[in-house]
Design a protein that fits this description.
iron; EC 3.5.1.88; two-stranded antiparallel sheet; alpha+beta; single chain; metal ion binding; binds zinc ion
Length: 183
């Protein structure tokens, strides 16, 4: 998901900004594969994803958005002026949804400059592996709950525009398909 105001964070060294995969690239519809182990190669991928996300700038990014179909996503909800708070979720799985919903205006780094309101469960419980290689369980609400659901959707080849009306979705896809052909 993109961040509305520009945020520039020097998070670390040795990281690479990767090109983003943009709609209608069919890669975005691919289901990502589970990760078998947390090794240095995976941690480098996580760092590259964070660097790419900060550069965009965004608050969440899934592996497939830089063309890597593996079940990993990164999130940082720190606001401008706050310390960076990078979070890495490996093989995330939603184990509980609330019945109560909440609506956020969402956007996506793979669908630049398009925003729409999406309703999702307000509170979720997510089980995942952290960058420490250990299993964690977090209960998320507010923007974190929305962002996690948006990014986990990416791991399943689902985009936020799949949650809006078919008419709106077809218009967006048409616009981006036209733009891609124009290049
Ligand atoms: Zn997205």
């Amino acid at each position: 998901m993109p961040v509305p105001s520009l945020k520039k964070i020097g998070y670390g060294e040795r990281m690479t900004i990767k090109p983003l995969i943009i709609l209608p690239d069919p890669l975005l519809r691919q289901v990502s594969a589970p990760i078998e182990r947390v090794d240095s190669e995976l941690l480098t991928l996580a760092d590259d994803m964070l660097e790419t996300m900060y550069d965009a700038p965004g608050i969440g990014l899934a592996g497939i958005q830089i063309g890597v179909p593996r079940r990993i996503l990164v999130i940082d909800l720190a606001r401008e002026g706050e310390e960076p708070a990078p979070q890495v979720f490996i093989n995330p799985e939603i184990v509980k949804f609330s019945e109560e919903g909440s609506v956020y205006e969402e956007g996506c780094l793979s669908i630049p400059e398009y925003y729409a309101e999406v309703e999702r469960p307000a509170t979720i419980t997510v089980r995942h592996i952290g960058r420490d290689g250990k299993e964690h369980v977090v209960e998320a609400d507010g923007l974190l709950a929305t962002c996690l659901q948006h990014e986990i959707d990416h791991l399943n080849g689902v985009l936020f525009i799949d949650h809006i009306s078919r008419l709106k979705r077809e218009m967006v896809i048409k616009k981006f398909t036209k733009a891609a052909k124009g290049k």
